[in-house]
Every structure is written in structure tokens, then in C-alpha cells.
Design a protein that fits this description.
Blueprint (H helix, E strand, L loop, with lengths): L1 E3 L2 E2 L15 E10 L8 E3 L4 E2 L3 E7 L5 E5 L7 E3 L30 E3 L4 E2 L6 E3 L7 E7 L4 E7 L3 E2 L13 E10 L2 E2 L3 E7 L2 H15 L5 H14 L4 H13 L5 H14 L2 H17 L3 H19 L2
Parallel strand pairs: 2-5, 10-17
Antiparallel strand pairs: 1-8, 3-4, 3-6, 6-7, 9-11, 11-14, 12-13, 12-15, 15-16, 15-17
Helix pairs in contact: 1-2, 2-3, 2-4, 3-4, 4-5, 4-6, 5-6
InterPro entries: FN3_sf, Ig-like_fold, TPR-like_helical_dom_sf
Protein name: Tetratricopeptide repeat protein
Length: about 300
């Protein structure tokens, strides 16, 4: 469901109904003009922005889009509330279903990490699904301009070799993994990865610094801001890492678990996503957070459909 951020002639942000949990739509990055949005940092569903004399920069918390709003140039742009159409395989989604990675039995050494197909880290570690009976793997990473290869014995992971050149920003790579049982070649796997261009990486770094400067509560900073900035650029690995880090720090916010489940599902790990959604359901029930409970339950239904599909 789409919810608009309307410009209103009121002097302050109109608040959502009291006693209800906020359904966040956007972060206010900056505001200036005759009527400041003093102290307001999160726009909830159903709230309105004052129009008179304000220039506002917003970060949409689901799509990661940055909107710059000025009264004289206002257009009815919208920030989307969290919905399933942004997740591959969901009804109405334009994304394609991915098979569940990490299955017990693997015929090919499917790449597991890094998550996603776009990377910020130019020296990522690799892990893959082990193939029964395989004793060694041949890893090949190549682009049009460069490439390298190495052998891995009796293991299904590889730290980026120190003696190999770093991946180049803005370039695309093919990662091929070949499983061998003795001298016999088993079925290989191939994955496409791309490295975020330097200009986009710099813009992302500046945006994250701006988010951190808002001094939001840590949970909101992570799942409304930093995760949105990463995931909107396809940086699933960075999103997963920042969400996992927040949970290790002690957060029990159901929104964090749901966001982590979404990233796993986008990366093709439905079993991992299910675990996070189940925890989100439990924590949402414990805090009587109905919006987050609804989100988690809807996603559990989606995972069940995916896992039961042929």
C-alpha cells in the first residue's frame, strides 16, 4: 500500500493517532525555512509535513530514495510503506524467484556468500554449498580486464587471497566454482557479481554519515536509515552485516528481525528468512506491536508458499 507525504499548511508535523505504533515512512535528513521541523526526525504513516516556508530532505525508509521537497517545486512524490511487492516472488513483485540456497543436498557448489549480486567490499570472502564427496574446489574470478584463480582443499570457504588483485570498482565479475572428487569434475556453479562504482560509493558514504548525524535511537538509525541506504543499492551483504551487528548488540526490535529476514529472502535464503520472521512475530507479540506482527506474519505466509512450491 502506498502512503503519500502531503504538504500541509499546519505549523508542525501532524501526528499519527496517539497510542498507535508508528509505521515509518521516512527520515527527515534536513529541514530549513521559516517553520523548522524542530526535533522531528521520523515521518509516520498518516502524518503530514507543513508547507509554508520549508525545504525538507527525506530518506524513504523502504525504497532508500532521497526526496528534496520545496514548496514551489513540490510534486506528489511518495514514500512507500513496507510491503511485500519489494520482495522477489511476492504477489505483485517484479522480481524473480530464486531457489533456496543452503539446501542440505547440493549437486553444484552454489555460492552462498557474499549475499546479493552488488558489493561494496573489493576483497570479499567467499563461501559455497559443499558438494557431497568433493575433495577440492577450483575458484575462478574474472572480468573483462582481469582475473585470478586458486584451489581450495577440503573446505567450502575462502578468504580473499592477499596475493590477488582487489576487485575493481564499477566492474562486473563472474565467479565460477568447480567441485572435484579426486580428478573427476562435478557440476560447476557460476555467479555474477558487480562492484559499486566509486562515485556511488562516495555518495553512499555521505548519506550514511548524514543518517548517523541525526542521533536517532540506534534501532531506528539501523533499520530506517542505514539498511535502507544499503539495500536500495542492492548491497545485501552490507545490509545483513549491519542488522546482525545490531542484534548482537542486544536489540530485540521486531523491525530489525523482519528487515534481516527480508534481506535473506532477497538473497535467496528462505530458511534463514523464516527464522528471522518467526522471531519478529514473537517479539512483536511480546510488545503488542501490531503493525510489525502483521508484517512478520505476512512474510511467513510468503515463505511457506515458496517452500511448498515445486
Amino acid at each position: 500500500m502506498l502512503s503519500a507525504l502531503f504538504l500541509s499548511p499546519t505549523a508542525a508535523v501532524a501526528q499519527a493517532s496517539p497510542g498507535k505504533h508508528c509505521v515509518p515512512l521516512a527520515l527527515i535528513l534536513t529541514s530549513s525555512g521559516e517553520r523548522q521541523l524542530a526535533g522531528k526526525k521520523v515521518i509516520c504513516q498518516g502524518e503530514q509535513l507543513p508547507a509554508s516556508g520549508n525545504k525538507v530532505s527525506l530518506l524513504c525508509s523502504v525504497t532508500g530514495q532521497v526526496l528534496s521537497l520545496a514548496e514551489i517545486r513540490w510534486r506528489p512524490k511518495r514514500c512507500r510503506a513496507s510491503d511485500l511487492t519489494l520482495i522477489p516472488c511476492a504477489p505483485g513483485s517484479r522480481g524473480q524467484c530464486r531457489r533456496n540456497r543452503g539446501a542440505e543436498e547440493a549437486k553444484a557448489p552454489t555460492l552462498l556468500t557474499p549475499y546479493g549480486s552488488t558489493l561494496l567490499n573489493r576483497r570479499p570472502a567467499f563461501s559455497w554449498q559443499p558438494v557431497a564427496g568433493a575433495t577440492r574446489y577450483f575458484i575462478q574470478v574474472r572480468s573483462r580486464e582481469q582475473g585470478w584463480a586458486t584451489w581450495v582443499d577440503n573446505a567450502s570457504s575462502l578468504s580473499y587471497p592477499a596475493d590477488k588483485p582487489a576487485l575493481v570498482a564499477g566492474s562486473s565479475y563472474t565467479v565460477s566454482i568447480y567441485a572435484y572428487q579426486g580428478n573427476a569434475l562435478r557440476e560447476p556453479s557460476t555467479t555474477q557479481l558487480s562492484i559499486l562504482p566509486n562515485k556511488e560509493a562516495q555518495q553512499l558514504q555521505e548519506l550514511i554519515a548524514q543518517i548517523k548525524s541525526l542521533n536517532l535511537p540506534k534501532d531506528e538509525e539501523v533499520y530506517l536509515g542505514i539498511d535502507a541506504a544499503y539495500s536500495s543499492r542492492g548491497l545485501m551483504m552490507e545490509s545483513v552485516q549491519v542488522l546482525q551487528k545490531r542484534l548482537k548488540e542486544g536489540s530485540r526490535n521486531p523491525a530489525i528481525y523482519t528487515a534481516l529476514g527480508d534481506r535473506y529472502l532477497q538473497a535467496g535464503f528462505s530458511a534463514k528468512a523464516k527464522t528471522e520472521y518467526e522471531t519478529a512475530t514473537t517479539t512483536a507479540e511480546a510488545t503488542a506491536n501490531q503493525p510489525e506482527l502483521n508484517k512478520a506474519e505476512a512474510r511467513l505466509k510468503l515463505v511457506a508458499q515458496l517452500q511448498n512450491s515445486p
